[in-house]
Design a protein that fits this description.
The complex is a heterotrimer of chains A (391), B (329) and C (97).
Chain A: E1 3-8, H1 9-19, E2 24-26, H2 35-45, E3 52-54, H3 59-72, E4 76-80, H4 82-88, H5 92-97, E5 103-108, H6 122-125, E6 133-136, H7 140-155, E7 163-168, E8 176-181, H8 184-190, E9 207-208, H9 214-246, E10 253-256, E11 263-268, H10 271-284, E12 289-294, E13 296-298, H11 302-309, E14 314-319, H12 330-339, E15 347-352, H13 362-373, H14 380-383, E16 384-386
Parallel strand pairs in A: 2-3, 2-4, 4-5, 5-7, 6-7, 11-12, 11-14, 14-15, 15-16
Antiparallel strand pairs in A: 1-8, 6-13, 10-12
Helix pairs in contact in A: 1-2, 1-7, 3-4, 7-9, 10-13
Chain B: H1 8-13, H2 40-52, E1 56-60, H3 64-69, E2 81-83, H4 89-105, E3 115-121, H5 122-127, H6 130-139, E4 143-149, E5 175-176, E6 179-180, H7 189-195, E7 200-205, H8 209-221, E8 226-231, H9 235-238, H10 245-254, E9 261-264, E10 267-270, H11 281-285, H12 296-319, H13 323-328
Parallel strand pairs in B: 1-2, 1-3, 3-4, 4-8, 7-8
Antiparallel strand pairs in B: 5-6, 7-9, 9-10
Helix pairs in contact in B: 2-8, 4-6
Chain C: E1 36-40, H1 50-54, E2 60-62, E3 68-70, H2 80-84, E4 90-94
Antiparallel strand pairs in C: 1-4, 2-3
Classes of the chains: A alpha/beta (391), B alpha/beta (329), C alpha+beta (97).
Amino acid sequence: MGKRIGMEIALAAAEAAALCRPDVIAAYPITPNTHIPEHLSDIVAEGRLDAEYICVESEHSAISACCGASGTGARTFTATSSQGLLYMQEVLPIVSAMRLPVIMAIGNRAVSGPINIWNDHSDIMYQRDTGWVSLFAANGQETVDMMIQAFKIGEHRDVMLPVNINLDGFQLTHVVEPIFMPDQEEVDRFLPPYKPYAQLHPDKPMSMGTLGLPEIFNEAMRAKNEAILQSKKVVLDVWKEWEKQFGRKYEPVESYKTEGAETLLLTMGSMGETAEIAVDELRKDGVPVGLVKLKLWRPFPFEELRKVVKGAKSLAVMDRAVSFGGPGGPVFAEIRSALYDEPKKPRTLNFIIGLGGRDMVVEDFIKMAKKTASTKKLRPEDAYEIYGARE
Amino acid sequence: MSTANLNPKKLFENFELYVPKLIEKMEYFSPGHRACQGCGEALAIRMMCKALGKDTVIANATGCMEVISSLYPTTAWNLPWIHVAFPNSASVGSGVSAGLKALRRKGRIPDRYVKTVAIGGDGGTVDIGFQALSGAMERGHDMLYVCFDNEAYMNTGIQRSGATPFGSSTTTAPAGKASIGNKTWKKNVAEIMVEHGIPYIATACHSYPIDFMNKVKKARSIKGPSYIHCLSVCPTGWRSTSETCIKLGRLAVEAGIFPLYEVKYGKYKITVDPPEKLRPVTDYIKPQGRFRHLTPDQIKGIQERVLMEYNKLMNKVNHSKSWDELKAL
Amino acid sequence: MTAKKWPETWQEVNPGCMVFRPGSASEYHTGSWRAKRPIWENEKCIKCGVCYIYCPEGCVTEGADGFFEANLDYCKGCGICAHECWPAAIKMVNEED
């Protein structure tokens, strides 16, 4: 039986990854996710995990080594943030195209210019189109649970795609929370050994990463897109299984006090926890406000989102990344697009908050909720603001 | 030009002439690949695979060899093969090596040794892949890295690389009224690998197949990192005729431009003795269109530098001590 | 796995464009690239195998009688075999002849 312990979330994430028995770990340190590869190397050094730990010389090599290892049929894991993730970017679409279920933990951190090591979502937002399944954790328990679920989702024969688990740098990685940590026997029951679709081995020679002429590239892209669309069903099934075995429920879009809500706030990641407190306070004052928390980012949960926001009059989407010169923040643009054809849809506002680790407090969420409740319909280029930028 | 007019005595002295009969017959690199006619690199790959044998996994960088061999839905490879991107064959190879090690230890693959070999062109090794190569060699993975050096980014159309020789005309360092072509000397990656302290480094050329294949076999038997730098003649990029592919490789060795040597546990050894008097570099330069703009003075400058580099190497060879010998001093 | 009809549908494309037919490049006959072809004069041949080892295509094969010939499905006519043949037993002849 697992036990409930207080643990730094990054360390817990490493423990969760170790419980999944990865065979090869290749990671490069970068603040704020460093504690994840560090703790994993501790676990390997103590002999608690039988894995090959490669101290690669760059993040590009980290993901490349994971490709090579995954190609041989090994279960692989890596972790990074921000600049490291961008350095890997060349390889990320290749990993999903090659259908290698590499699992990656991302300690979300601002992308440079100016260099900033603190938390926002810009790093993952640059990876929207890479074809990876993307999960967002809002707290330590979700981090640990999603780490284990990710292996099962990625390795499923109907998916065979890499998965990334996003946890906020510092806001989550360096925070100590009480976490119910499953034990090895429970995880082994949930996650069977990896049975790869294809393996690099001389007994059955095959070629991976071949060249795709124009005659076939289009079809290959269609096949890849179908794969990530199909993965939604597997994500839901895995979450159902998780609830059955561990008792904790996961949905692509989680709602908090949305019954009768006229105004909704939409968050991803740990800011949702602060928003919950704001919603509680507003509700105490009788303001009909609710919170929507997105846990599944890719594949995008269209059905669940439309269902949850149906009755609301206004919706504030909290982004933690800027799409410079674009129609608002990345999440905002996708939400608006998802709701575009709905006959009844809320008026939407976009607050780009918490950039580069800027703290967001309950009062900020209360202010944003009030502003949203009274907003009129706006075009996307007018509907967003980089919240709190001093003038 | 045939050698039928040579002194018959010389024919019988050359045992290597008959050794092709003893070589592994299996074609691990099948015909039907789309390399140019007379491609030295494809020939080198074919030879390397014969020396490696069946129990090998290849990690290939983007480049000529990857593109011509693996057009979906076919592959010329009769070995397990993976390609990911341009700069990372050494890191993919590191992952393959680690994966095979872990899986064998855990009993998830049959309990027999499978060699990991990462290959790349000069672009993917000397320039964009340099970091990954250095990292992989420094970490000591059980992996052989073979660089097939055709002295430019041939696959994208003959652009200059760090391995392009001085005075060679490439499309990004072309010869012209204001330029000699490539202005820098070839980066000596083999010597850089020696300084990484790995157990086995060698230079080779497809024109000396037995020497090359023996080196591949030796490297294969090392349970650690090893590096082979194989000069591969590219008739297309070097603007030479396809049939002189093998001859040009020989001329490079006989002129002292690309000495064939190995460094085993720190001990240098020349494996193919060039003639006592090195051939003039002009013999090597004349048949290649990429050098046709060079003036006699410029060729003289190249000759001096070639001799200097050769003497530098011979100095190392003559004073070389193996690691064990150094420990005993 | 048997060969599928080319070009494949998106459902037929192997996941990750993986190829499970090693050596299948031999389905493509590069012999059509040739402008010249090698002809062996067996009277001069000393059966050394040098032409076999230096062929970049790997299409020169030894017959039961120990003599060599190029598989014309793949021979690109590069001329290396003729150039390297010690007793000059190989001649490159124009395709049209």
